[in-house]
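Model: You mentioned two targets. I'll fold them one after the other.
Researcher: Yes, keep them separate.
Model: Target one:
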Amino acid sequence: MSERTSYEPGTPSWVDVSSPDLDASKRFYGGLFGWEVEDAGPAEETGGYVMFKLNGRNVAGMGPIMDESQRPAWMTYVATDDADGVAARAKEAGGSVVFDPMDVTGAGRMVIVAHPAGGVIGAWQAGSHTGAQLVNEPGALNWNELQTRDVDGAKAFYAAVFGWQPDDQDFGGMTYTLFNVGDTGIAGAMPMPSQAPAEVAAFWLAYFSVADCDESVAKAQELGGSVLGPAHHLEGVGRFAVVADPHGASFGVIAGEPPEE
């Protein structure tokens, strides 16, 4: 189902990007995905946070860089009914709390946690903002994937924090871990690419659906972005690529397999 009004706890429900230049990022993502922009509320309350919208529905968010140590990046948020419990479980599982649980106006309650194998990830306890209202459509969130050098460590961490159950599968000769909530696959994990510099920590990658992967890659470059992983096809998945916006925030674009006739 493409339209969403709620998310089961443990399911990724939202993504947002941090940017050092909100106006430039609005132009980039608007040109790439056709997103429109709406302020999340008064700037003095939201810090300048904005909603990206597609066909009138919230699909992602964006906020400013908060300090010089923060790099532009996409953040994945997992739905929860207890943000404080996520913080406690993350610490018990060997992780840390980057931002303590906090209320965000009336929109909800959030926490951001980190783990050496599990990367940095947020949890969102919904108030008036329930998450992405449109998914799995061109221009909307499609998938969330962890890249890590310690897949087993990530499995243990996320089982403890969110109750995710891992399922290792063979994808094109590579072991790919599918994280499940019940019988539903909700995210994935794979070994960090060997060409990644040693200082690159585990990270989450958000994938967005597009109608044509190659056209989207070309458009991203035209708008000032760069290609990190050239487009390629994987049977049963589709054609996908990894790109970065002009400020270096990486994300994926994917055009799924056409339906069988």
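Model: Target two:
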Amino acid sequence: MHDERENLTWQTFGDASRELAKAIAADGFEPDLILSIARGGLFLAGSLGYALAVKNLHVMNVEFYDGVGSTLDMPVMLPPVPSAVDFSEKKVLIADDVADSGRTIELVQSFIADHVDTVRTAVIYEKPQSVINCDYVWKHTDRWINFPWSSQDPVVQRAGQVFDA
């Protein structure tokens, strides 16, 4: 990991999510629902939902990072886990902020794969070591990313927090 970081601002996030929406629309993909990977994917899913006129948004909570560049052995789905039948025969767009190792998106994609009509993935950033190649990527990078929603310290302290230091 380089010392230099990608710095995504709120303004640039708005531009990035709009460009992703345009790429998805130009591709002819019309998702029935957007499945957000919380927490970072919530912002992209909401933005894409508005831009693509998709009101049906779902959330999956997956824990993987336990520090900067440090992860658990494998990603873990946290409750409540949606019922796979909710995705039955749907065209699903999985949204996340970054495909770093790609293992989180891979877990979510495999969880719904046997139940959906089609599944595609959209991320703001994709890193070279990702085990999956996302369908829609705004930018490729090998740097650590400072996202506007997680680059400041929390206003409260809780056990188990991951700090970006």
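Researcher: Noted. Anything on target two?
Model: DSSP finds three helices and eight strands in the chain.
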